[in-house]
UniProtKB/TrEMBL annotation:
NCBIfam families: purD. Belongs to the GARS family. Its cofactor is Mg(2+); Mn(2+). The gene is purD. Pathway: Purine metabolism; IMP biosynthesis via de novo pathway; N(1)-(5-phospho-D-ribosyl)glycinamide from 5-phospho-alpha-D-ribose 1-diphosphate: step 2/2. One of its GO terms (molecular function) is ligase activity. It comes from the Bacteria. This is Phosphoribosylamine--glycine ligase. InterPro entries: ATP-grasp, ATP_grasp_subdomain_1, PreATP-grasp_dom_sf, PRibGlycinamid_synth_ATP-grasp, PRibGlycinamide_synth, PRibGlycinamide_synth_C-dom, PRibGlycinamide_synth_C_sf, PRibGlycinamide_synth_CS. Keywords: ATP-binding, Ligase, Nucleotide-binding, Purine biosynthesis. SMART domains: GARS_A, GARS_C. Its EC number is 6.3.4.13. It catalyses: 5-phospho-beta-D-ribosylamine + glycine + ATP = N(1)-(5-phospho-beta-D-ribosyl)glycinamide + ADP + phosphate + H(+).
């Protein structure tokens, strides 16, 4: 098979790395890719939203399968564009990607089909939103309805913070049109768990659990980011939690989308909160999570190309997912100042140490080659350093050890990824 991957971050590097291990895969292209992806794929200078160019490239190069990895092109109809041209593509069509593309849609779906989630209201009028807040219990959560790079969620501890949040989202348009409509949601407490799944329209197959660390600073302080690190599996995702979620959340979501005429094929990412009243859905994503993918795929035994094909062909019921009996931890190496202002262009050293280190991986998120061919930083999140171990504590030690192998100018990381393990 010849495969084209759309995207250029750590998630796409992990997908490319895993696909490269498949005996079915002969050649991988990535648009636009990055310096790390270039080790396993040929990078093409086409943007993630340039559907016409992507389709033309796929036709010219005899691409057998295109994998659309990021949220924006999925929501905008990338898969639809490939299918309209008679080409195979992995990922949900636009009418199904709305599961992530509109928080108001997903909340209404959960209410209609009795899928456990936080109580909420939606608003398109900022004055009415502020009026509602006057009577609401604090803390409270504000969510931009549309896509906001994983950052459009504000947790507000006071009425003043909440009112300021409405202004930020709806009037100042910090996340552009994503804030035209907002969801105001009750604040849930408990453990967060991320669960990724493969879906073929009818059947859902659950991958291993993971947990992300969204905040920029140690101790879950600072601003929300795209993710500063992850671990897998989550010790809090017990067999009892799994059984409840399969019956009340996972399959009901797939069935609900089908009932709505929005058949979902691709990846559904379930962001769960394990509350005192049982597991509830925090959010859905319509694609692999980043950086959850960087700890889930290294533990997966299955051939990823075969799974992608099974999702498209509706034959997922014939497959069993298998995972190694181990654990993985990913520590994100970021640019100091992320997610706000940071400098790029610093040379990265130490990457060669991963070449022969079994069980240690470095997934590139924000890198590129400079004019001399040297790998330099090119984003807020630069690298995801992942290591496996016999258990979570060993994997964490290994990941932090490997994080020290790499150096660049304004390197920053959290020092407490996986700390929740100690409380399990």
């Amino acid at each position: 098979m010849k495969i084209l991957i759309i995207g250029g971050g750590g998630r796409e590097h992990a997908i490319a790395w895993k696909l490269a291990k498949s005996p079915k895969v002969e050649k991988i292209y990535c648009a636009p890719g990055n310096a790390g992806i270039a080790e396993v794929a040929e990078c093409i200078n086409i943007g993630v939203m340039e559907f016409d160019k992507q389709v033309s490239f796929a036709k010219e190069h005899g691409i057998d399968l295109t994998v659309v990895a990021p949220d924006d092109p999925l929501a905008a109809g990338a898969v639809d564009a490939f299918e309209a041209a008679g080409l195979r593509a992995f990922g949900p069509r636009a009418n199904a990607a709305i599961l992530e593309g509109s928080k108001a849609f997903s909340k209404d779906l959960m209410k209609k089909y009795n899928i456990p989630t936080a109580a909420y209201e939606t608003f398109t009028d900022p004055d009415k939103a502020i009026q509602y807040l006057e009577t609401a219990k604090m803390p409270i959560v504000l969510k931009a309805d549309g896509l906001a790079l994983g950052k459009g969620v504000l947790i507000c501890n006071s009425l003043k913070e909440a009112k300021d949040g409405v202004r930020t989202l709806m009037l100042d348009k910090q996340f552009g049109s994503a804030g035209d409509e907002i969801v105001i949601e009750e604040f849930m407490t408990g453990r967060e768990v991320s669960v990724l799944s493969f879906v073929d329209g009818k059947t859902i197959k659950i991958m291993t659990s993971a947990q992300d660390h969204k905040r920029a600073k140690d101790g879950d302080k600072g601003l929300n980011t795209g993710g500063m690190g992850t671990f897998s599996p989550s010790p809090f995702y017990t067999p009892e939690v799994d059984a409840f979620c399969r019956e009340r959340i996972y399959q009901p979501t797939v069935d609900a989308m089908r009932a709505e005429g929005r058949e979902f094929k691709g990846i559904i990412f379930f962001g769960l909160m394990l509350t005192a009243d049982g597991p509830k859905v925090l959010e859905y994503n319509a694609r692999f999570g980043d950086p959850e993918t960087q700890v889930v795929l290294p533990r997966m035994k299955n051939d990823l190309a075969e799974l992608f094909e099974a999702c498209i062909d509706g034959t997922l019921d014939q497959t069993e997912l298998e995972f190694e009996d181990n654990a993985a931890v990913c520590v994100v190496l970021a640019s100091e100042g992320y997610p706000e202002h940071y400098e790029k262009g610093y040379p990265v050293s130490g990457l060669e140490k991963f070449k022969d280190a079994d069980g240690y991986y470095v997934f590139h998120a924000g890198t590129k080659f400079d004019e001399k061919g040297q790998v330099v930083t090119n984003g807020g999140r630069v690298l995801g350093v992942t290591a496996v171990g016999k258990d979570l504590k060993k994997a964490r030690v290994n990941a932090y050890q490997a994080a020290e192998w790499v150096e660049f100018g304004n390197k920053y990381m959290r020092n407490d990824i996986g700390y929740a393990i100690d409380e399990a």
